[in-house]
Design goal:
The chain is α+β, with helices and mostly antiparallel strands. Helices cover 40% and strands 10% of the residues. The chain contains 14 helices and 5 strands. A 5-stranded antiparallel β-sheet has the order 2-1-5-4-3. Strand 4 (230-240) and strand 5 (248-253) form a beta hairpin. The chain starts with 6 loop residues before the first helix and ends in a 44-residue tail after the last helix.
């Protein structure tokens, strides 16, 4: 078996364990000792030899053709985002030497835009660090402050979890979105730091991470239970920022004339005297950020017995 990291093999093995024989159209006879498909079943359905598929899982062949990967994606029932992720794993690439996490800087004009928007808005880095935000976003959630990390807060902060009535699906969606955002750059120091911290601190994160779900985080409806104004139903838009390494402008907005629009206006009025966190010139940092990192500890009480299996939007 090949030594060293094997992201392609790890991914296809994790995904075949999520596909049932019934989903693949395979009759079930007798007791099965594997949670999903067997290796030879995947190979047969994909039209490749069982020995070749075994070499892929074990990392002894790391450069399969695009046709082979497309066949595997079909058998493993991957959607478009997950298929693109699988294709990106198909070629050996030189790995970068690990070093210090590089700071992410928000363009000054984008920071000014965020501060001026009359809606909750923030800039999110590719590792879900909050790089810039405005007062209304912080009024929506006090964790939406510069230097925070949205993935960490969702798993380790009970107050953040309480904002999400469907926290389990929100958590699953964010983990899948984080893997999609990181792509194949798994030697990135910030990626290594965050995954290591959350794996130790949250058993639920560890279980979700082991599933290797990959999902993009497009615009989606957002349901929040706010401690001051109650239920909010918002739309969340995610817009890529040109000239940055994966930074995203995130904006929340209500349907005009709805109860949520009125509640958001109340929050805006209360936030008028607050100073936007991003109004200091537009720089933000990844890595540990401006806030102290919560110490690792047991996962919060909201730990379900098993991860959700259906697609879930990101938080």
């Amino acid at each position: 078996m090949s030594a060293g990291p094997n992201p392609l093999g790890d991914y296809v093995r994790a995904r075949r364990e999520q596909v049932t024989p019934e989903q693949a159209g395979i009759p079930v006879m007798g007791v099965r000792r594997v949670p999903g498909l067997r290796r030879e079943e995947v190979a047969l359905l994909a039209g490749i030899s069982a020995d070749y598929y075994l070499r892929l899982e074990q990392g002894r062949d790391r450069n399969p053709s695009a046709q082979v990967l497309a066949s595997l994606a079909r058998v493993l029932l991957l959607d478009e985002a997950a298929t693109e992720y699988l294709l990106s794993l198909g070629a050996d690439r030189p790995r970068r030497l690990r070093g210090r996490a590089r700071a992410e800087t928000v363009p000054a004009s984008i920071a000014q835009l965020v501060a001026a928007l009359p809606l909750p808005a923030l800039v999110e880095g590719r590792h879900f660090d909050v790089l810039a935000t405005n007062a209304l976003a912080t009024a929506l959630s006090p964790r939406l402050t510069q230097g925070a990390n949205r993935l960490r807060d969702l798993f380790l902060d009970p107050a953040e979890q309480a904002l999400h009535p469907d926290w389990e699906n929100a958590a699953a969606g964010m983990v899948a979105g984080f893997r999609e955002s990181a792509g194949t750059d798994t030697d990135d120091p910030r990626f290594v730091e965050l995954v290591g911290e959350l794996t130790l601190a949250s058993a639920h994160f560890s279980r979700l991470w082991a599933r290797h779900d990959v999902r993009a985080c497009p615009g989606t409806p957002k349901h929040i239970e706010h401690p001051r104004v109650g239920e909010l139903r918002l739309h969340r838009e995610r817009l890529g920022i040109d000239g940055t390494a994966g930074q995203t402008l995130v904006v929340y907005h209500p349907e005009p004339g709805t109860d949520t629009a009125g509640k958001l206006a109340l929050l805006a009025a209360a936030a008028d005297t607050a100073t936007p966190a991003a109004a200091d010139g537009g720089s933000g940092t990844g890595g540990s950020g401006a806030r102290p990192t919560p110490p690792p500890g047991p996962a919060p009480a909201r730990t379900p017995p098993s991860p959700p299996t259906s697609a879930a939007p990101c938080a």
